[in-house]
Design brief:
Elements: E1 3-6, E2 17-20, E3 28-32, H1 37-57, E4 61-66, E5 69-75, H2 81-86, H3 96-106, E6 115-119, H4 125-132, E7 136-141, H5 146-153, E8 161-165, E9 174-179, E10 182-187, H6 210-224, E11 230-235, E12 238-244, H7 249-265, H8 269-272, H9 282-294, H10 298-303, H11 305-308, H12 318-325, E13 331-335, H13 343-349, E14 353-358, H14 365-375, E15 378-381
Parallel strand pairs: 6-7, 7-8, 13-14, 14-15
Antiparallel strand pairs: 1-2, 3-8, 4-5, 4-6, 9-10, 11-12, 11-13
């Protein structure tokens, strides 16, 4: 099949809409549901992300996409007991691809609500079972076990979108798109992101651990498929904060840093021990936890406590937050282009960043390096810009 009609484009008034291959067949097969325009943008971008992560790390990879940017991305690293509780999988022995999915979905659960999922490896029944219980629009993977496909076909009253990607597909080297009747054409961004791009380290701190290299590569590849400007914090084989599409780079760093802080605050004992009622559904728990850790709307949350909690939990004070966040260390940070000023590094240091990868090339590189040295951060200049639009 080389053409597929769509219900509409980005918005309901944008009709007609279709996707098609200029030569040969489309590289994916629809196994269930009916794809939309944005679904397919998410699917094809996220597929590239997870396949490149798998190639770079050798580990199964997963991504959670929303509006053509990742909300989460991860590789198959075993979860700690604390993260098992944070991600609602306590005591479950996870398959590698399920571990990658749970990490990708768990990074920023608020942003992943209604996401599109990509898996680098075959979707197994365990991953499908976890996915079935989440609010999600669709999935793309190279294959599915019979049991996994049967589980997914039951989701959303049988309408859940399931795409099977042809892993052998390779697009043409030149890509093009049309904007306002004008054609744009460029070489595909096929740059390979490997550990070789982490060798130019101008900071006093030179050592980057193997785990940190993995996390920096993950962050860089995630940014390759994130709307620019963008910054990504990563730790333990997963993105923990992604700042996408901001006009100012320091705003990216702040946005992503706040998400990374919230990720770590969710592991605070006060949050882990919130006395939720057994009948409170997962999305309501996510919303309540977000309000609890950010403090935004906490007064309204207190009014709703009988519906959510068995008893009224104590507030998470600013001093308690600061003390807990001070324990966050060893975080990796990547940027899709150079940091123009040291203020980005100052903000990154507040979220436990110990390793940075950025392109370099700013007239203020000396200031950025000096600020890294102030905090003992090892920073690699990749000399690769990763803008994505």
């Amino acid at each position: 099949m080389n053409e597929l009609a769509l219900k509409y484009g980005c918005n309901p008034n944008q009709k007609p809409a279709r996707v098609y291959a200029e030569s040969g067949d489309l590289p994916f097969t629809v196994l269930n549901g009916k794809p939309g325009y944005i679904n397919l943008l998410d699917a094809l971008n996220s597929w590239q992300l997870v396949t490149e992560l798998k190639e770079a790390t050798g580990l199964p990879a997963a991504a959670s996409f929303k509006h053509v940017s990742p909300a989460g991305a991860a590789v198959a690293v075993p979860l700690s007991p604390v993260l098992e509780k944070v991600y609602f999988v306590e005591g479950v022995e996870l398959s590698p691809i399920a571990a990658a999915y749970i990490r990708a979905r768990g990074a920023d659960r608020m942003s992943s609500y209604g996401d599109f999922v990509a898996l680098s490896d075959e979707c197994d029944a365990q991953t499908a079972s976890f996915l079935k219980r989440e609010v999600s629009d669709g999935i793309i993977a190279p294959s599915y076990t019979d049991e996994a496909l049967a589980i997914l076909k039951e989701k959303r009253k049988g309408t859940y979108l399931v795409l099977q990607m042809n892993p052998a597909y390779r697009p043409a080297p030149i890509e093009k798109k049309q904007v306002f009747g004008v054609w744009f054409e460029q070489q595909r961004n096929d740059v390979k992101i490997t550990a070789d791009c982490l060798t130019d380290i101008p900071t006093k701190a030179k050592e980057i651990s193997e785990d940190a290299k993995r996390d920096l590569l993950l962050a860089l590849i995630t940014l390759k498929y994130t709307q620019s400007n963008s910054v990504c914090y990563a730790k333990d084989g997963q993105a923990i904060g992604i700042g996408a599409g901001q006009q100012s780079r320091v705003h990216c760093t702040r946005l992503a840093g706040n998400k990374a802080d919230n990720w770590f605050l969710r592991q605070c004992p006060s949050v882990l021990n919130l006395p939720f009622r057994d009948d409170v559904k997962r999305p309501d728990r996510d919303n309540a936890i977000d309000v609890y850790v950010t403090g935004e709307g906490v007064e309204e949350l207190a009014k709703e406590w009988p519906r959510l909690f068995t008893s009224l939990p104590p507030l998470l004070g600013s001093e308690q937050k600061t003390a807990w966040l001070h324990k966050m260390k060893g975080v990796a940070l990547a940027s899709d282009a150079f940091f123009p000023f040291g203020d980005n590094i100052e903000r990154a240091a507040r979220s436990g960043v110990s390793y940075i990868a950025q392109s370099g090339g700013s007239i203020r590189d000396d200031n950025v390096i000096e600020t890294c040295d102030k905090y003992g951060i090892a920073m690699a200049m990749t000399h690769i810009r990763l803008f994505h639009h």
